[in-house]
Amino acid sequence: MKNRITQLLGIEYPIIQGGMAWVADNNLAAAVSAAGGFGIIGSATAPADTVRDMVRRVREVTDKPFGINIMLMSPYADEVAHLAAEEHVAAVTTGAGNPGKFISLWKDAGVKVIPVVASVAMAKMLARSGADALVAEGCESGGHIGSITTMALLPQVVDAVDIPVIGAGGIADGRGFAAAMMLGAEAVQIGTRFCASTEANIHENYKDRIIAASDIDSVVTGMSTGHPVRVIRNKMTKEYLKMEQEGVSVEEMERFTAGSLRKAVVDGDVQGGSVMAGQIAGLIKDKKSCRDIILDIMKEADEAVAAYK
């Protein structure tokens, strides 16, 4: 499949792996890229030396293109931004802020710039600033989210900009892929489905909790703080939502959730930790290799389109 995204990134399939904190390491990024998609290292709050090590580990096992996701609120964002340019990764995706001050740095180094947006206004601004493509991420996604659904946001962003758009949020199979393409996307970004891959270097409890999730197991915490996060409901979310209802201070809630994502991803505590996952978790019923996930999505998309011809 060839379009502007596959040509921009030099990939076989227009499937981008989400840059999930504590999940998207060099192992997952390399597996997705080797399978023909576009793997991404999620730098989260890691220092540059840690990210550089992951970049080099990806290159030890595949010569396929891959990228780095930079959370712009990270205290290490500046140094990781410069690392991306120094290492000449294929692309950078960004979240939690405006990457404008880094765009010329990256473009001068040949790094494609692909910010994640949750509104048309942000999409227009970043397109004017020189972004090469955009990820329009709906609130069905896991982790930090905006307020607009993928089905509503994606076509509006597509209509608002001339650069290619990647659809994200609530996509885990070929039907979701085909739907995003019909809405104008030229690729999809997938996170939760890749969490349940055999190559994801996370605790099996985390994967099993995603697979066991039902359609109503997703919940959003942090609405009262202005930083909503979509996770799978558990003991921790029940207590957190209670604290929000009681008007507990933001500082106290932050202390309560400190380290909770690591607790779930690394330690496997899926009751006391933060199990970030999208609403699509209820559709995921097994663990597969990244290659099988990608090939299945493309096959299902072809079948879905053929059924309506």
Description of the structure:
The chain has 309 residues and is an alpha/beta fold. It is 42% helix and 15% strand. The protein has an 8-stranded parallel sheet with strand order 1-9-8-6-5-4-3-2. A 3-stranded antiparallel sheet has the order 7-11-10, with helices on one face. Helix 2 packs parallel to helix 3, helix 3 runs parallel beside helix 4 and helix 8 crosses helix 14. The chain is globular. The model has no long low-confidence stretch (mean pLDDT 94).
SSE arrangement:
Layout: H1 4-9, E1 15-17, H2 26-34, E2 39-42, H3 48-61, E3 66-71, H4 77-87, E4 91-95, H5 103-108, E5 112-117, H6 120-129, E6 134-137, E7 143-144, H7 150-160, E8 165-168, H8 174-182, E9 187-190, H9 192-195, H10 204-212, E10 218-221, E11 229-232, H11 235-245, H12 250-257, H13 260-265, H14 290-306
Parallel strand pairs: 1-9, 2-3, 3-4, 4-5, 5-6, 6-8, 8-9
Antiparallel strand pairs: 7-11, 10-11
Helix pairs in contact: 2-3, 3-4, 8-14
